[in-house]
Amino acid sequence: MTTDAVLLLSPRINDTGLQLRAAAGRRGLRSHTATAWRAPAELIGTPVHVYGGPLFADAVGSVLGLALTQPPHDWLTVLPRELTGRRVELTTLAEARALRSPAFLKPPGDKLFPAKVYRDGSGLPGPDALEDDSPVQVSEVVRFLREYRLFVLDGEVRTASRYALDGDLAEAPLAEDPYRAEVSAFAADVLAASVGRLPSAVVVDVGLLEGGGWAAVEANTAWASGGYACDPDAVLDVVLRAGGPAEQLAEADRRYCRASASVVG
User: Fold this and answer.
1) Distance CA 75, CA 195 (A)
2) Which residue, 108, 168, 235, 257, could crosslink 73 as a Cys pair with Cβ 3.0–4.6 Å?
3) Whole-model pTM above 0.70?
4) In 10 A of CB 128, how many CB atoms?
């Protein structure tokens, strides 16, 4: 990273953004909080790394020459059943609307509709709201008793945090959690099964299922994920890699790049 690089934060800065701004300052990295949903003119031509939601990232990505990596939509569906703990399929919105039994439905990328248990597919957005070929992840309904967030760089967990107990927010550093050894062991299995199938900087969530057994929850973009009780300095390392200048992108990460749209307004 060049010494003139900047960490760009969205106008809607959250707790993680504030922590990253402080972490950037500790290592002498300049930060800039945007005041509008567009690329700051003064940063054009400067090496920029971004932290913010997908709308902000798309608004600034192409203008600032960013490479924004994200996990593939089918990552969870191609993991072995012993790591997912449930049936998981990737389909289209048109096909998901035809479901006539309960399922956990979510958009595998951006939050285009609420991720939750649906009684059937009739509750999904209609064709007037979203395209029929929009991807939808369909999962067997399970209950997670404990959920954990892992910030991963080059296949290794840099920092981790518990974020939920029985569906309710319950943040704690992994080091303070009684299941830390089990989480670490299961995370190693998930990452070993994901070699060559995730970008080098990514967020992976895992959890303990009701009735026992560990399962992968989902994978997320590091440049838009909350840090919970993770170490902000380690989170920053992952964020900087996941959303930075295109010229710094590793060849192996090229296939995970998001096609950023320039948003005007």
Assistant:
1) 11
2) 108
3) yes
4) 5
Checking DSSP bridges between strand 168-173 and strand 156-165, what pairing results, if any? antiparallel
C-alpha distances in angstroms, 147 versus 77, 86, 157? 19, 16, 15
Give CA–CA dist 243/249, Å, rounded.
Answer: 9
Of 245, 171, 246, 156, whose CA–CA distance to 202 is shortest? 156
Q: Are 56 and 68 in contact (CB under 8 A)?
A: no
Using alpha carbons, list the distances in angstroms from residue 246 to 118, 158, 223, 242: 39, 23, 14, 10
% of the chain with per-residue pLDDT over 90: 89
Percent of the chain with pLDDT over 70: 97
Cα of 101 vs its chain's centroid, Å: 28
Q: Name which of 143, 144, 149, 158 is nearest 177 in CA terms.
A: 149
Q: Which amino acid is at 103?
A: A
The DSSP letter of residue 41 is: G
